[in-house]
Amino acid sequence: MSLTFTAGESVPDYLNRYERNELLRFLTCGSVDDGKSTLIGRLLHDTGRLYDDHLKAIEAESKVHGTQGGALDLALVVDGLKAEREQGITIDVAWRYFSTARRSFIIADCPGHEQYTRNMATGASHCQLAITLIDARSGVTTQTRRHAFIASLLGIRHVVAAVNKMDLVAWGEGHFREIEREFLDYCAKVGIADPIAVPVSALTGENVVTRGTNTAWYSGAPILELLETVGVDHASPVAPFRMPVQYVIRPSLDFRGFAGTIASGTVKAGDRVRIMPSGRETRVRRIARSTEDGGDLSLACAPQSVVITFEDEVDCSRGDVVSCFGGSTDTLVAQKFECDLVWMDATPLTAGKTYLLKCGTRTTPARITRVRHCVNVDTLEAQQTDALALNDIGRIEIETEQPIAFDPYRRIHGTGSVILIDRMTNATSAAGMIRTGDASDAHARRAHWETEALPTIHAPVGQSLVSTAAREARWKQNPLAILLYGSSGSGKTTRAFELERGLWEKGHAVVVLDGQMLRAGLSRDLAFTEEERSENLRRASETARILLDQGFVVILSMVAPQAQARWRASDLIGSERFMMIDCSDGNSPDASALLRMVTAKIG
Amino acid sequence: MQLTHLDILEAEAIHILRETAASFERPVLMYSIGKDSTVLLHLAMKAFWPAKPPFPLLHVDTTWKFREMIAFRDATIARLGVDLRVHINEEGVRQGISPATHGSKVHTDIMKTQALRQALEAGKHDAAIGGARRDEEKSRAKERIFSFRDRNHRWDPKNQRPELWNLYNTRLNEGENIRVFPLSNWTELDVWLYIHRHNLPVVPLYFAKPRPVVERDGMLIMRDDDRFVLKPGEKVVERNVRFRTLGCYPLSGAVESDADTLEKVIEEMLLARTSERQGRLIDHDQSGSMEEKKREGYF
């Protein structure tokens, strides 16, 4: 269970094993007396991470500052700063490290008092999982809700409630279930994908590292087992490639390398890429690495730090984003944004003030154009306001001096997160999560379907008396939606019908959804504002989804001018059964090439 | 493609080094010769390859380093072809400051902390990159990766800038500086594993061999040269020893050991029941002493 190295074991074997460990970063949060420090102390102690001299020092301190009547107080393991030990509180995020035979862990230990919300957000920005401590005697509190909300805001999928001090409530299952229900309900409300509650006693160790005997009624995993098994998705293979350029390496005239950390996706030598926000295209020539280090890489993925060179002498420098090529996965470019903010500065945020905004490797002045609302974390109500105070969480509109290449935060954290820096004090004043670009009232209303949670349940084809397999056997095809988009006159409709004819002749079951066709009936209530164009695309996408679920190939021919909305269509339909072609792009494939591409995908 | 935890730590450190080079006017890499510096230097070579690191290295020499450390330093610099600057607090030398006569506290303050300030000020360095790790010591566990210092090089633990994602705030006013710790999230085992994986040379003092030592205050201190004065009753004996951390030789406790290869050193560390800093006299002056030193500008 712990980092098992036993005398006599071969060191190279052990290192090989340890080297393959995955990394999980998680945070712990809770109110002052919930026993958070004790829980961490327990994890470190029970996985053999505490050295004798540390333990000795803690034993000595337990007698002076301890809260366990002179007995070993594991909380002292993590209370680092002198000021904290004297006051018996934790004032800042502390980082801890331990490993088991399966994973290496980094703990961000976040303080719980209300005034330190900023620390919780800080910790959360680095983590894939959050453990929130709940005192079994007091149940779900304002703090618990605040923590769950911040975790969801920062995109943490796994939130574990450690319902602590179960020993003080006689290990009562009913008591635990009540807290569990309230916690899960709240998590559902704020959209946390994977909430879990565990009954523990950090003091006795029950359900921390090993299962306990007092909670036989609990069939779930102890905390450590959850930490060892929860999914760590560093680089989704389908995520689009993004690399903010950090530094240009130019040792001589014949080498110009662009150094950066891959924020999302993968890159190979030969890949077509765009330099954003300029949009210039080139191809990756090399992912350069010295021969001593193993030579050039053929493939790299997030979050590796790499140096890439391009086929062409394109203009590219720090602050640009190297992005994969292709309609559905383009980085968005904007100067106006709608952002969720955690305000971290004692000086309140007000509309009209200019800060420095850092997004990826780009830093640019940015003016707050509007404060939309502040969220009451207890009720989740959005309250109208024109200022955000320290530890407030709210939504703002901001306008940058330079255009920025970005992605919505919920999609790609590395290109959707920002910090605001006060130009006078140099303080880091806020953490921001970009929701959309080009925010304005009309857009924000239009953006609703583009930003709301995705429906998780597909159309109930399960009730149909024709099985998916039967449909596949009849039509011999994998369902696929092809979006052909571009302005009027770009030839998308002609292409759509050519493609339909080609597929028809090969015996496929194919349907065309043309924008004009929709407007004649299904969308005849819509005009041509951006909001309404977006809505038209939504209706087409929903219709396509129903048809795909029943085995058809669907060709959509739409103007679809907004990348954000196109992208959302991809989400809605499912990116694995969706492709899009920009018909206004001179490089887009001709009719026969398009037919080949599509038939290759539908089999 | 599944990256391991060490791949991720390496990528993070390289990101931090590049961010430092891109954001500051006159960064410098604090090279202290030990195993952490070895990894740090290797990462700096890697981060800017095929160019050399775009900043010089700085060694603050207290004049009490082990001779083998200085020899290793000079050989490493020659092998890699990088720019190293050595700074000694000459005023301290004139005053004859030494660990023996002035104690570890005064010696460390004048020859290390003050010397570092002199060197950073003389070089107008706005960023100093160091190899400290958060798992080394309690107060380090709360320090930022980009750790702000005021004009007096003071660290204010209660007023640190929040550090989110990998978006580092590198803004400074005239005279202020930032200490940068790319290895913040590495553990001692990670450092050794990296050295092993990349076959990096380290100072031979990490490996056990017979060395002349004196037992003092419960620690084994190596007599590296004639400046080391014996107290009454002390005597130099030859023991098979090695060092887990390296610093000024009169302040570095050796451990008795037979580990004379990298693998044996790692094995010993894995089985060890005491932390690496236990062998350092300067941490034991008082409870919270590292925190005090850091507030005063110690690295």
Explain what you see.
The complex is a heterodimer of chains A (603) and B (299). With 603 residues, chain A is an alpha+beta fold. Helix content of chain A is 28%, strand content 30%. Chain A folds into four domains: 11-229, Rossmann fold, CATH 3.40.50; 242-329, Elongation Factor Tu (Ef-tu), domain 3 (Beta Barrel); 332-441, Translation factors (Elongation Factor Tu (Ef-tu), domain 3, Beta Barrel); 467-602, Rossmann fold (3-Layer(aba) Sandwich), CATH 3.40.50. Chain A has 17 helices and 27 strands. In chain A, α15 packs parallel to α16. The longest helix of chain A is centred in the last third of the chain and has 20 residues, at 530-549. Chain A starts with 10 loop residues before the first helix and ends with a helix. Chain B folds into two domains: 5-191, HUPs (Rossmann fold); 203-284, no CATH class. Chain B contains eight helices and ten strands. Chain B has helices spanning 5-23, 35-48, 67-80, 90-94, 99-122, 188-198, 262-271, 289-296, and strands spanning 27-30, 57-60, 84-87, 127-129, 146-149, 177-180, 209-216, 219-222, 237-242, 253-256. In chain B, the strands form two sheets. A six-stranded mixed sheet of chain B has the order 3-2-1-4-6-5. A four-stranded antiparallel β-barrel of chain B has the order 7-8-10-9. The model of chain B is unreliable at 283-287 (pLDDT under 50). Chains A and B meet through α1, α3, α4, β2 and β3 of A and α1, α2, α6 and α7 of B.
CATH class of the largest domain in chain A: Alpha Beta
Shape of chain B: globular
- Arithmetic mean of pLDDT of chain B: 90
Question: What oligomerization state is this entry in?
Answer: heterodimer
Would you identify the CATH architecture of the largest domain in chain A? 3-Layer(aba) Sandwich
The class by helix and strand makeup of chain B works out as: alpha/beta
Rg of chain B over CA atoms, rounded to whole Å, is 19 Å
**What is the fold named in CATH at topology level of the largest domain in chain B?**
Rossmann fold
- Shape field of chain A: globular
- Helices and strands of chain B, in order, run as HEHEHEHHEEEHEEEEHH
